[in-house]
Amino acid sequence: MSLWDVNGNLSVFRPEARTASETRLLGWNVPPHELATIPEHWLSYPEPDASLHYLLGMLYIAFTFFALIGNGLVIWVFSAAKSLQTPSNMFVINLAICDFMMMIKTPIFIYNSFNKGYALGHTYCQIFAIIGSLSGIGAAITNACIAYDRYNVIAHPFDGKLTKGKAILFIILIWIYTIPWSVFPSMQIWGRFVPEGYLTSCTFDYLTDSFDTRLFVGVLFTFSYFIPMSLIIYFYSQICSHVFSHEKALREQAKKMNVESLRSNQGSSNETAEVKIAKAAITICFLFVAAWTPYGVMALIGAFGNKALLTPGVTMIPACACKFVACLDPYVYAISHPRYRIELQNRLPWLAIKEKPISDTASSATDATQNHTTVA
């Protein structure tokens, strides 16, 4: 059913007209003046069962609870603890802020879900999408900066140290890079924000069949996904290569000296540095891929592929993946960062973390290999 007549005018003026004989279609309860803001693609699908809306609403409540608490703790502890106030950790704080931002928009989704559709309308849709754009792209670029910083620390330990001034400059550049991708669609200068899926969330328009939309999606995909992903993979592959080469050289030297290891604390750790750094690199790459690849693929299909593949239910998978990773990030911090666990233990003893104090030497080694093991 087309929403437009032969003269290009909106042909549906009443919500009742969106109701089929037996099954209601998506958008049946949307006010007429709001229908024009919804891609026609979604309006041909039947409305899901109310239980599915409620299930997604409850899922997002859980996501919000764990992500806000986890990322809130990361922001608080990393900002307040002097032992964690390093230039490199400024990126950790920025990443946690991005994850925190991503979840403060979820009440819009939750309200829409429990009201079974586009209940809050166009204005809140724009707010939802703007926050999502800022937090998502900001997290992607922040992760690329973290990868670059870790690469410099490990590959160039003497001249690759990050200063506080440089870290602040990087963070400013991150937001300068990120903000236009929210401003242009929100003001419809280039692209636009529209509802998607069950009309309970909003994102970039990747469905309108026009050259402008395809160009926007292609450029956005390149600058907000492909470039950060390429940088992350390159820097962490280089980190692994340097660590493996270093560990190999240590083993060969130990063999020449007829000793088991050149490391004084080798016996106290069951894992070598190369295993730890490999785990960190794999974790970072995996989380970034899990968070944003589904969205990237979905956008490319919508703009350049078979739109029939994008059902409302399918589009909820990328949204849930992003939110799940935003929940997971701060808890990966806790697993991978001993100093963070110690600070948590000092500030919140009732958590019963029971982390043993670490020496300055061990701390330096850990910071060099495990300091950043999360992604947006």
Q: Please list the strands of the largest sheet in the order they lie side by side.
A: 1-2
Number of strands: 2
Give the count of structural domains: 2
Task: Give me the CATH architecture of the largest domain, please.
Answer: Up-down Bundle
How large is the count of helical segments?
A: 12
Give me the CATH fold name of the largest domain: Rhopdopsin 7-helix transmembrane proteins
Uncertain segments: 5-14, 360-376
Membrane topology: Multi-pass membrane protein
Subcellular location: Membrane
Function: Visual pigments are the light-absorbing molecules that mediate vision. They consist of an apoprotein, opsin, covalently linked to cis-retinal.
GO molecular function, one term: G protein-coupled photoreceptor activity
Provide an overview of this structure:
One of its GO terms (biological process) is visual perception. This is Opsin, ultraviolet-sensitive. It holds the Pfam family 7tm_1. Residues 70-333 form the G-protein coupled receptors family 1 profile domain. The protein is an all-alpha fold. Helix content is 65%, strand content 2%. It has helices spanning 32-35, 50-80, 87-104, 106-114, 121-155, 164-178, 180-186, 211-256, 273-304, 312-336, 338-347, 360-370; strands at 193-196, 201-204. It has a two-stranded antiparallel sheet with strand order 1-2. The chain is elongated, with a radius of gyration of 24 Å. The protein starts with 31 loop residues before the first helix and ends in a 6-residue tail after the last helix. 38% of the residues are buried. Mean pLDDT is 80; it is low at 5-14 and 360-376.
